[in-house]
Amino acid sequence: MNERTCIVTRRTGPVDGLIRFVAAPDGSVAPDLKSRLPGRGAWVSADAATVRRAVAKGFFARAMRCPVKPAADLDQLVAGLLKDQALGALGMAMRAGHVVTGYAKVEAAVRGAKAQILIHASDGAKEGWRKLDKALRAMERDGGAEDSAPFLMRWFSAADLGLALGRGNVVHAAVKHGRLAVSFLQTATRWHRYVDAAGKLV
Question: Residues 95-102: contacts with CB within 8 Å, 24+ apart?
């Protein structure tokens, strides 16, 4: 397993739990989310609090062995990039025809066991959540396997979802089974853990 050590906590773990940073030509510190940029890299645990500490305590300059000056809001910059990456993956799934939106279509996908991820807008009406959750329970009672139940996600606003999916505010969406759903779930989970490492994912 490919592992790296966080320059702040000194804990070693898989690379998907850390973020790589490199020294930019202008002396700033650039996040390298895909771990492909050239140059000496420094790895930091993938949560906003640890990135803030790395900036405040000068860990980047020591690790990179050069006088870099990271942006004071580097943690927020990384959060934005991770969120954009996740919503980009959702948009890709939409363009491939793997996403349905709107209550009726999403309910049909749930009842037909076609949804791998069930998305509720974080600012959507709770009544809509309850109705779709009821449809999910009905599907399970009708013989749906427990491991086929969709992952429930309430992380993005209706405006975020609408922007990613190329339409107005989206309150309900479902991502169909497949590799694009897996890719979206991985990137969305990475962002959510980064901004809310101590909180629950749903």
Answer: 96/180, 98/175, 98/176, 98/178, 98/180, 98/181, 99/165, 99/173, 99/174, 99/175, 99/176, 100/173, 100/174, 100/176, 101/165, 101/167, 101/170, 101/172, 101/173, 101/174, 102/172
